[in-house]
């Protein structure tokens, strides 16, 4: 006969912060390959790594000065009695070069999973990841690429315009945003989006020949947002998501806006300013 164990004491532990990241293209949660660290704003050299649990959630624990708050029942009374949260900067870096680096700020402790609320309404709970230009193209997705440069910052020594670091580029079709991307430090950007429905003439009598999928093209509207964020460091994600609208230039002389790019099925669309290999932002 087995004797039931005697419970002398119960000890519960509460994580001060939990964050789930999701791919803005596939809308799946991402954990593998991400290096996530946290630090107080004035102590960037004293970082703590967040650990990934089985639910694909990064958890912050064992933080000096906050260890006392980790022990408790985690019930309503526990959260009602906690001190004012302290701000921590969360630094996100993808070691496999699929996603752009960024930071964001969270109060610690935070109840439930952290939600990034800034810019347009979030597509799902958690924190979005934006594709790096080095990412492999997911199957079945259209692609728009560009090297964005700031037309207002010309270096007479190098005869080059400065990169539009961390600019946001959105792709729209039929009044709906279908994709968006975040430029890297050099202004290179990729926007992936699911192909729209094929464009074919209406059914008629006699029947009009249908256009093969491989011959399809879609007019994609481009919208850019830019605020000259510091290039030397990973961008604050909320600052990147709330940049001001700007203008893409199809031509410099005379200045002509670029608003539409035709994307062909199976072919990367390269957006450029006429006569250049890059795309200027005014």
Description:
With 282 residues, the protein is mostly beta strands. The protein folds into two domains: 17-129, Immunoglobulin-like (Sandwich); 141-281, Immunoglobulin-like. The chain has two helices and 22 strands. Strands 11, 12, 15, 18, 19, 21 and 22 form a seven-stranded mixed β-sheet that branches. Strands 13, 14, 16, 17 and 20 form a five-stranded antiparallel β-sheet that branches. The longest helix has 5 residues, at 76-80. It is globular and about 80 Å long. The relative contact order is 0.15.
List descriptors.
Immunoglobulin-like, 282 residues, 2 helices, five-stranded antiparallel β-sheet, seven-stranded mixed β-sheet, 4% helix
Secondary structure layout plus pairing:
Layout: E1 17-19, E2 21-23, E3 29-30, E4 34-39, E5 48-49, E6 51-52, E7 58-60, H1 76-80, E8 86-94, E9 102-108, E10 127-129, E11 141-155, E12 160-163, E13 168-173, E14 176-182, E15 188-194, E16 217-225, H2 237-241, E17 245-246, E18 248-251, E19 256-257, E20 260-264, E21 269-270, E22 279-281
Parallel strand pairs: 2-10, 11-21, 11-22
Antiparallel strand pairs: 1-7, 2-3, 4-5, 4-8, 6-7, 8-9, 11-12, 11-15, 13-14, 13-16, 16-17, 16-20, 18-19, 18-22
């Amino acid at each position: 006969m087995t004797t039931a164990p005697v419970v002398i004491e119960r000890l519960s532990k509460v994580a001060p912060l939990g964050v789930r990241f999701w791919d803005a293209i596939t809308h799946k949660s991402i954990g593998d390959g991400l290096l996530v660290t946290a630090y107080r704003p004035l102590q960037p050299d004293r970082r703590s790594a967040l650990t990934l649990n089985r639910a694909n959630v990064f958890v912050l624990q064992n933080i000096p000065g906050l260890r006392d708050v980790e022990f408790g029942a985690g019930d309503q009374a526990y959260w009602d009695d906690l001190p004012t949260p302290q701000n921590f900067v969360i630094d996100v870096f993808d070691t496999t070069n699929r996603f752009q680096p960024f930071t964001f700020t969270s109060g610690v402790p935070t109840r439930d999973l952290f939600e990034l609320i800034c810019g347009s309404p979030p597509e799902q709970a958690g924190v979005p990841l934006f594709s790096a230009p080095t990412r492999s193209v997911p199957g079945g997705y259209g692609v728009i690429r560009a090297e964005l440069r700031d037309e207002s910052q010309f270096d007479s020594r190098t005869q080059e315009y400065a990169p539009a670091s961390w600019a946001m580029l959105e792709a729209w079709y039929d009044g709906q945003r279908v994709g968006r991307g975040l430029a890297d430090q050099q202004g290179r950007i990729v926007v992936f989006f699911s192909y729209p429905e094929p464009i074919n003439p209406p059914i008629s009598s006699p029947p009009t020949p249908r256009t093969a999928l491989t011959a399809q093209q879609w007019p994609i509207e481009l919208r850019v947002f830019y605020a000259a964020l510091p290039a030397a460091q990973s961008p604050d994600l909320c600052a990147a998501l709330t940049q001001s609208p700007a203008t893409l230039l199809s031509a410099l002389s005379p200045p002509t806006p670029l608003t539409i790019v035709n994307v062909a099925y199976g072919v990367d669309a390269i957006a450029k300013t006429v006569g250049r290999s890059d795309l200027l932002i005014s």
